[in-house]
Amino acid sequence: MPRVAYLFERFPSFGQTFCLREVAELERQGWDVRIFSIRRPNEELVHHGSGDLARRVHYLPDETALLDDVNKRSAARELPAEAIEAIREWGRRPDFLRLQQAAYVGMQLRCAGIHHVHAHFAGMAARTAFWIRRFFGTAYSFTAHANDIFVPTRFEIGLEQLVESAAAVVTVSDYSVAWLRERFPQQGKKLRRIYNGIDPSQFAQRGMASVVPLILSIGRLIEKKGFADLIAACALLKNRGWKFRCEIVGDGPLADDLQKQIDASRLQSVVQLIGPRTQPEIAESLARASAFVLPCVADAQGGMDNLPTVIMEAMAAGVPVVSTRLAGIPEMIDENITGRLVSPHAPDALAGALEELLQEPELAETMGEQGRVRAAERFSVEKNVSELASLFSRVLGS
Q: What is the pLDDT of residue 42?
């Protein structure tokens, strides 16, 4: 049975259900997966069904216990000489815990006979994997997603070093492959696009539309999701005489600002911020939706979504999708076939696209059916994890 370790900053995480699906499917396909998490979950809502995997996660000790363990191993000369020297020289410089965590995890991997580690996001876990390779020679790969590459945080071991050192770099859209290849042309051969995966069978096909159409949106309440544009579009629809409801699922720092916008536009009876929901509750909401909307934008720092999983889920549920021409989103939505794409920051165009779906329910139904087919073809977790497993096998073979 082939073996691989996964290293996460925090697992399981409510906002990263694709990671849970990936690990579970990799095991279903015959891999022995050891899971390490630097931090423990701090969210009340975790993915439904995560219990078995969550119980097997090896959580790293807290800082005091971690330093004590590494110091003892260092004094006993159990660590590689390069690790002992690097930790001593680095001292308490920024990101020093990554070296300590690498020493701890690397020893666990060596004892378990595991020769490859994979991380999600070009962040804390990938930087730890960088040092694991440096200390123990253990190959690593990572999946790059969105802000971790579009607006990476500056560290001494940054995105350039991670891409150069990794055995392979996975990213989730053709857009981000091109983005990385433009910045790191010498590393182009190790870049691989593998879409995030979903299990289409987990999403019941959309039922009959309710008497009052439901416009649904899901995401963290932050600038790059574009919810302010959605609320503005709803105000236009209401002024044009359309009867509908809009539910925005999620929580985040902009909750108060968005509620003030709803109140100022007198949309309290139409638009609701309903807070976070579990995955089964999200699936139930999708089954009732007439349209799914995610009007993504680039935020003030340049951060933006790349391949939002919720769009895949809406497509799997047979819901027509309206979103924006941004990053990898056009790879998800076949315009005029499975949904509509508009420019970012264009509430009027957003309202127009929604108005068309409200006015032509048969068109919306056809788009939803086509979206369900596309989701199964492009975003099946079985297919995409099979590609990832092949990549791991090649790295282990080399």
A: 78
